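Worked problem 6 (solution included).
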Amino acid sequence: VYNGKRLLEWFGNRPADGITPQEIEARLDGLARDGRKPATLNRYRALLSMVYSFAVRNGKLQHNPARLVRRRRENNMRTRFLARDEEAKLVAAIRSKWPEREPDFVLSLHTGLRLSEQYRLEWTDIDWERRMLTVAQSKNGHVRHVPLDGAALDALHRLQALYPDSPFVCGGWKTPKEWFGMALRAAGIGGFTWHCLRHTYASRLVMSGADIRTVAELLGHRTLQM
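Solution. The predicted structure is:
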């Protein structure tokens, strides 16, 4: 509703077929100078384009000028990392109320797996002898192999003891959302999500001396830019 009011303020007294892409672009640039984020500008553009598309489909207009307005590039990546003192607080909170969930947390922190990858992981994907796990299908569609350090191996042994009859490493659970948010609040940690554990894994690899290409391969990224 608010976006619609803004569009009416801009163009409410103008014939729809007289508004140019350049005018729309100028309005969005003004919002950008006021500090509005690219995602916000894209929502204004999308709403205006939807209105024009409706009018074109109903024979009221011939052209949709909003389609010629460039879409702003959005950066949705959250670059939040877990500091060592935060890790200690979070582990303490998990051990206090959800001790059986600690191995899930440790495995994520020490492998950088995506949430979906970790909770689909099966015991057949673990190579104990080579200390390696295999992600059969990454987000980019490729197989990748992730080395297991001592903490990750210990977490796997604990999970094996917890779920001896399950084919899934994490016992068939689909998500950590039932407990992780509460653990964060108990530890007093804000602005953090499960995906940030993946960021933490990557940042610690870099700080330990790993080159960017190695980090990209371990995370399953197709490009070094990611």
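Discussion: The mean pLDDT is 90.
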